[in-house]
Amino acid sequence: MEQTFIMIKPDGVQRGLVGEITSTFEKKGFYLKVMVAIRMKLISVDRPFVEKHYEESSAKPFFEGLLKYITSGPVVGMVWEGNNVVATNRKIIGASNPSASDPCTLRGSFAVEIGRNVIHGSDSVESAKKEIALWFPDGTVN
Ligand code: ATP
Ligand code: MG
């Protein structure tokens, strides 16, 4: 079954959105009877770790700000599983910039700035595999 990595970013944790975000994915899974959270942890990550996670953005002008943002407080990392979960969760999350996100999405509902956009979701099955191995190196995936 396909899997994806989801991170609730520090602003999402600080604003008490963990339950609501998790519930959104759960309710979607319940409806489709395919999506189940199989791993979840609250963790503070350091700069080298975030550099690895976002290595594809390392040349971007916002990278330093992104490192500061993601290391500014604990995050929640999760693996979700289900049919087409990578693309479906990206749709539920919404566009990177919340001002352009559909209002029915998580970012469209809960965020206004691209630099504080509440949540991350893997952008492909390949990225998901890399991210799951990075975040859950102890053989997370059952
Ligand atoms: P994520 O990888 O976090 O799920 P994404 O795939 O929608 O987001 P990316 O292009 O991978 O978007 O950018 C990674 C993250 O970097 C964004 O979610 C956002 O937090 C931050 N970011 C992207 N563009 C900007 C920008 N122009 N200014 C500030 N931060 C940005
Ligand atoms: Mg991305």
UniProtKB/TrEMBL annotation:
**Which lineage is the organism of this entry classified under, starting from the top rank?**
Eukaryota, Viridiplantae, Streptophyta, Embryophyta, Tracheophyta
Entry's PANTHER family? NUCLEOSIDE DIPHOSPHATE KINASE
The cofactor(s) it depends on are: Mg(2+)
Matching entries from NCBIfam families are given as: PRK00668.1
Domain named Nucleoside diphosphate kinase-like: residues: 1-142
Name of the featured protein: Nucleoside diphosphate kinase
Q: Which organism is it from?
A: Eucalyptus globulus (Tasmanian blue gum)
Q: What class of enzyme is it?
A: transferase
Q: What is its EC number?
A: 2.7.4.6
Any one Gene Ontology molecular-function term assigned to this protein's record: nucleoside diphosphate kinase activity
